[in-house]
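Thread: quick sanity check before group meeting

JM: Hey all, I'm pulling together slides for Thursday and realized we never actually wrote out the predicted structure for the chain we discussed last week. Dropping the sequence here so it's in one place. If anyone has concerns about the input, flag it before I start.
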Amino acid sequence: MLKRIFIFFIIFIYFHDLFAKTKYNLQTPFPVVDLELIDNNISACDDFYKFSCGKWINKTKIPDDETSWYRFSEIDLKTEKLLTQILTNYKNGNYTPKIKYAKKLGDLYNSCMDTDQIYKDGFKNLNFLISKIESINSSKDFANATAELQRLGVDVLFAFFTEQDNTDATKIQPYLTASGIGMPEKKYYEDTTPSGVELIQKYKLHMLNSLKLSKLFTDNEAEKAADFIFEFETKLASYSLSLEDQIDPNALNNQRTFSELVNLSPTFQWDAFFNKLGLNSFTKSKTKKLNIMDLHFFEGLNIILKNTSLNDLKYYLVWKVISTNATFISKELYNEHFNFFNKILYGQKSEPERSKKCLMNVNLLLGDALGEAFIKVAFGEEQKKYVSDLSQQIIKEMREVVANSDWIDSETQLGAEKKLITLSKKIGYPNKFTNYDNLQIKSTSFFENYINGHAFSYDQMVQRIARPVDRSRWDMNPHENNAYYNPSLNEIVFPAGTLQSPLFNLLSSDAANIGATGSVIGHELTHGFDNQGREYDENGNLQNWWSPTVEFEFKKKSQCLIDQYNKYTIVDNQDPNVPKQEDNPKFHINGEVTLGENIADLGGLKLALNTYLKSNPNAFDDISEINHGYSNAQILFISYAQSWCSKSTFESLLNQVIIDEHSPSEFRVNGVVSNMPEFAKAFNCKSGQKMNPENKCSVW
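JM (edit): ok, ran it. Output follows.
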């Protein structure tokens, strides 16, 4: 789905009055459906997205400190205001609302807001990390430094994390995967188009400028180091998996013992790395396994390391430290970092206010504690009950869809039924919040807090290996504007932060709420049966429970969506002088990469509509004054479309097409409704119109 953020007052009586009347009063200015946003100059049957969002698009300006803006970004603004006020209270010693870690939250926020102190200590902070590199005199030292830097939040060489075992979801195991490059994805290093080559040159210049600003190199040394580092990153990227290669979870499930890892990539001292993390038992065991997600990368890593001197490897580590920690070193380094990664890469015009950046950092380091404060003032049980009941109805609808699908045999239907019966749903917030007792936070040193926070999270992650799977754990903060499906736990999760207007409002109609929030519930549920989620059984194990004939039919249905979305092309609507790029593959949606999300979008809206029709069978004909001449079926579709109203910089849109598995908003609307006969019925679209093509795709 997506991401984001509400308002708070200090004096208790006013605070109590504001939220005791109803926590939903804050939502009333933002109805789920706003008919004033509709552009009646555009036919719903020709372009439903622009019909539903046209006036919003015309009047909305992307904030200078953002690269994209959605109608649901109103949620982010509300939550941001609320959380900033709470953190300001905590910073000033006013611990309202009362939670266990209020002081830690206040101290962390205070340290982040003190930029004078941050930059005063900047080069001392840099030298603290560089000292861990300077002491490297052997390949064992290099492996130790890699482990230590990763623990402190520096993305070096590869990624190490722990997650449920794909073959036994009752256990946690280590994972290794490709990482360590500076640009977002390997395609950036391989792009030979004029714009791609230009971007590479700008990245190399950014790298050179950053090395000079670090004061660790002479100009000549910086030039030599920059040339080597870019070449080194390019080699790492060349061995990395493409997004297309990462679609099949079976291809990423490579169970290996520690000795097999060593044989795969013997140049790196894996025993030193694992021992540094306290995982000595793995280095000694002949049976314990880890998941090496991309074997080719670690074969390539061995070749790269074997042909790179220790001194050059130090250059790479120094660069990763500088790039990761630019914000803590100097304003000049931060500006250089922002200029490339925000302005050039994503088209962001200006940096956000310090309070916004500090809120992001608090979310990163103490997010669950901040979420607890949010829940106390901004989320009610009535919201939770509505969404919980709606979720149950949509799950029931999915069971009927499976049972009535004539292309699914009884054996596969039984597997789907098991998965739906055991599906867990989490709504609002976790039953228990994270224990931060062992996280040391100071009010005076944000850098120390930052690395302590990363080390705390990293240690917690590593320690999960020795513990039973915690099925109550959440992968998002309670105040996030997002949702997800976790195949290993077979669960759908909806944080409280996303259950706000204009996506959800108890004062809006069921048609509106189900069109926006119901479609999200259906979306996450459908992920359990998309091209990736379907590979997992009811227990969260990677296991094929589909018969060959049903699997063949599923892939045939999916190919229809792949072909459909492959035809969609982005254009720079903000610059009319930029020609359309239909013939440039870089500007095309990748139907294969976005398949899972496109299946979920289509399935989600279908489930939402069918759920609504169960109790409102006359929804296509019940035109009323309350709906200003629209039927409830039309309102449901408009609600869905308006939940995706958005604007993006072209740079951001282009990056989304290159690295994101989600299609741009326009196609998440038009691509879905054009496959639904119910939409054509609701808006009386003639056969052959753009939103009612003769050939339609259907998976669920």
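AS: nice. The mean pLDDT is 91. Strands lie at 68-70, 158-165, 168-178, 255-257, 289-292, 424-428, 484-486, 491-495, 646-648.
JM: adding both to the slides.
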